Every structure is written in C-alpha cells, then in structure tokens.
Amino acid sequence: MRRIAVCCLLGALLVLAACQSTTNGAALVPVDDSPIVVRAGNTTITIAEVQARLDRDIGPAIADLIAQGQSPEAIEDLANQNNVRATIFDQMVQDLLLTDYARRNGIGISAGEVDTAAFAQIPSLSDGGSFTSSTEIRETAASSQLVFEVIARNTRADMFRARHILVRDQASADSVLARLAGGEAFADLAAELSQDPASAQQGGDLGWTPRGDFVPEFEAAGFTIPLNTPTAVPSEFGVHVMEVLERAEQRPFDDFAALRQSQNAQLFFEESFAPWYDQLRAEAEASGELQITPGFDPNVLPLPFPS
After folding, report:
1. What pLDDT score does 23 carry?
2. If we measure between CA atoms, which residue out of 206, 214, 199, 200 comes closest to residue 262?
C-alpha cells in the first residue's frame, strides 16, 4: 500500500544550490600553517581541511575514472562544469552551521544510530577507501547523522496520521465497522483481521505520513474524511477501514529515517529545507557569526589525482 521511495537522499540532501555569500570582518588568521577560510563561532575550516574533504569525497571516483582511461584534462573539465569544488565547500559550510544549530537547539543522536551508520562504512577500511581507522569512521558517521537529523527536523510536508484494517471486500469492511460501532477496540480488530501484517502488529497505526506515500484513494481519504471516524476506503489492495487521527500542514519530519523513506523526500527538501537553510546562512553571515575569507575560491584547489 505504501509506495516505495525511489530517490537517494544521502548524497542529494547535502547538495545546495549555489548562492552568493557576503563576508563580514577581516581576513582570517592562519592556523598550523594552513590558512583559515571559514570561521563559525569557535569552529574553523582551513584550506587543508577543504583539500582533505575533496580527497575523501571525490578522490576514489577520480581514481576510478583514471583507471578507466579518462585523462586528467577531461576530469578537470567535468569537475569545473559541475562546480564540484564549490559544491563540496558549501557542504562543509552547511555541516558547520547545522552542527552549531544542533548544539544550540539541543538536538542529539543515539549511540545506536551512530553505530549503525558507522557499520555501513566499515568496508572502506579494506577496499582502498580514504578512512584510516574505525574511530575516524565513527566520528564521521556521528557528524553526518547529526546533520541529517537537523535536515529532517527542518524539512516539512502536509501530513496525516491514520490507522487502518485492510480486508478483502466491502462486506468484510461492513462487518468491521459494525464491530467497531459495537464497542470493540480498533487495535484488537486490526491484530485479528487486517491483511496488512506490518501495521496489524501496531494496532493498525501507520504513523505520520506525508503526501505521496500512499496510493491515491487512501491518500485522498487521509486528507478529507472526518477525523476519528472509521470509514471504508476501497483501493487496489482491498478495502481499508480507515480512521484518521490527526492532520497537520507543513509538519516537520520526526527524524531522517522518516524523511528518507518518503516518496517525495527530495521535493520536500527543496521546497522547505533549502529556503530555511538559505535564511540560516544569510543571517549567520549578516551577524558576523559566519565569516568566509574574502576572495577565497575553492575552484583554485587541485583535484585529488592519484599520485
């Protein structure tokens, strides 16, 4: 019944549209022989760190292209056409601002989430990836998961929360409605009768769902039928005895997992998170909280070609 999300967010969510930045304050001070190019509060980014991020993010891909016979000149042209260096630099600035936002707003992540994300990256230790230790993998995973949580909590969509009992036909739905009217509990009937095993284990509860995740008949009912009123809704899967418990306009996602599973995740990201982030960055620059060295151009940094 629920449509399967087809967009891949783990990379796309961190790609920002190019934007003009204004800088406050004087040029920033070198640290450890590598000039600082970004300062946000007490946190900085140096040229060396930008170069290291390029190595990590696109070094393996460049090595693959070289192995396939692509010339360095062609790869350089491709990187310039796609503004790769500036995009990665903007990602680093975004990470910095979102991590600071998480700190100021008490947003955290569980150790279990970090462990799961880190475990998915462990193969890079043995397959030529750029991570050098399990500690580095875990630190990177923790940083990424924290950024993802901030993205989710500032990405919004119209949603409803419903529960349902899926049965074969209208006669079965009428029987369920009669039993509900007679005082039987919705959750008990869902566990007994629903042909949707996953939700039946939750008493029929489907949680908060944004537009686009369900088949059209079910979604239309989710946004129109009276609240707290069990209603028979036919669809290609059978007949749903559906009860809408709540509705909300432009509700934030509870977590990144919920956002990632949404069919229209990329659209919601572009429509709500991207403008929110643009404002966050503009305000940080205007206040001087975010400082970018005047004249710094990430496009002058060398691409990480294999030696």
Report:
1. 33
2. 214
